[in-house]
Amino acid sequence: MNSATKHVVVYLAHGTESVYHQTVFSILTLYYHTKGDFKDFAVVLYTDNRAFFSPYLSDTGVIIEDLTKEQIVEFMGERNFIHRVKTFIIKDCFNKYKKDTLYLDGDTMFMVNPAGLLKQITPACSVMNCDEYDMHDGGVHELQHWFDLRTALKANAFTLHTKQFKIPLATRMWNAGILGISYANAHLLEDVIDLTDQLYAKCPLFNVEQFATSFILQNHATVISSGDYILHYCYGGVKSMFTYHLGLFFAQHKNKSAEMLSQLAFEFSQRLDTLTAPPTTPKEMTILDRAVLRLQLVKEVAFTGGLRSKW
């Protein structure tokens, strides 16, 4: 790595081929918008499958850090919380590279050159994907996990550095699929890990790491959105659609060079509104499905005297 490099862009990819495809694609869009020139920042990928990524990235300058099964288990902690791994990866990246860091989930794509975004990562300013809601009003996010987290926050106090405190319901929940932190604030990750563990012990939800990160960063400095620099397609049907089309993309283009793939990735990113939902196959009913349905119908007849269904 060039000693003059000021930033690291870091990814974590482990587990499934769809995650690998998403991550390669994200890196290709970064490659396109920087014209393949990573001189101003390093790109680091932590993965459990170097063999998958090497054919795509060997000529790009991306640094691949091997992630072992043992490390994943260690980073998940005693409660086996998979989203805890991300924080440890960022922590390891700080320890090794000692640079301001922009972390991205794989399900992202760069829409423009990120130079302007990287410059905004300072000791006084962190970057996260977007501001989603608070614990007073979750808006469209008021699903069961929102109520469960709100209940846990109201019922419990937490402790950092021997000081006990309550977390205000006005705390903003930011999406942490994109996360920019200054190296000067690397120490905050210890607080994120500590608070994540306390939250997960009280309320074992998938998003407590995200909430802990949001709370720690917004109480230390300003948090800004990554805005239009990066698209994070993390929600339900959209992610399923993109995952399907990325599978087709790599099946069709897997033997092409990184330069050509990056051009194709850019073209893909410019026609997102033309993508169609993946085809669905009607589910064939199993014997168990039929038994459950029969019991439901029997119950309905017993309680109502007939069937009120659509059939």
TrEMBL record:
InterPro entries with a match to the protein in the record: Nucleotide-diphossugar_trans
Name of protein: Nucleotide-diphospho-sugar transferase domain-containing protein
